[in-house]
Design a protein that fits this description.
Number of helices: 5
Distance between the termini: 59 Å
Helix content: 55-70%
Structural class: mainly alpha
Largest sheet: none
């Protein structure tokens, strides 16, 4: 048994670190995390079907679309274009993975992007 106390996070240092990060970087990081999580839930990871959960994927894709829609005027097209491409790829993957596809315009995130077709 060790006598050293468990390490606690230095919240002051964490606050200073996050204060130095530009908002665009935070937005892009969140978007990439949503994309990655959605890809896993769509079964697109190495383990494929083991983590597939279309209900969870729908929520993540919808959240990503909402984030990109809300920040469209805040981030440059340099950042936004690849994120929109990734979103569309996830929406198409969702459509292909669904046993009963949503009507055009009713898929995850299509409220924000409009209908996505193959």
């Amino acid at each position: 048994m060790s006598d050293t106390p468990p390490e606690t996070p230095d919240f002051d240092a964490m606050t200073r670190d996050i204060a130095e990060v530009p908002a665009v970087e935070v937005i892009v990081t969140v978007a990439v995390n949503l994309m990655s999580a959605a890809a896993v839930k769509l079964g697109l990871s190495e383990e494929g079907e083991a983590h597939k959960d279309l209900d969870e994927a729908r929520k993540l894709v919808h959240a990503l679309a909402g984030l990109l829609d809300a920040t469209a005027t805040e981030i440059s097209s340099f950042h936004a274009a690849p994120l929109r491409d990734g979103l569309k790829s996830l929406q198409l993957a969702f459509r292909e993975a669904s046993l009963v596809p949503d009507e055009p315009g009713q898929g995850p995130g299509e409220k924000y992007t409009g209908p996505v077709y193959r």
